[in-house]
Specification:
This protein is of the alpha+beta class. The protein has one domain. It has one helix at 2-25; strands at residues 29-34, 37-42.
Length: 51
């Protein structure tokens, strides 16, 4: 029974970490200005930044 309990706790911990990572990333944006307009893109959609 101890092994099953450890596996369940580890699985729950991994799910919690995944949920926290998702929650913290879902509201992050890359914002930029073009002329006098401001734009924002979800940071997870950004593939490359060219300067």
């Amino acid at each position: 029974m101890g092994i099953v309990m450890e596996a369940t706790v580890e699985q729950d911990k991994n799910e919690l970490v995944d949920n926290i990572a998702y929650a913290s990333n879902k509201n992050q944006f890359l914002s930029f200005m073009i002329s006098d307009e401001e734009f924002a893109v979800n940071i997870l959609k950004v593939q490359e930044i060219m300067g």
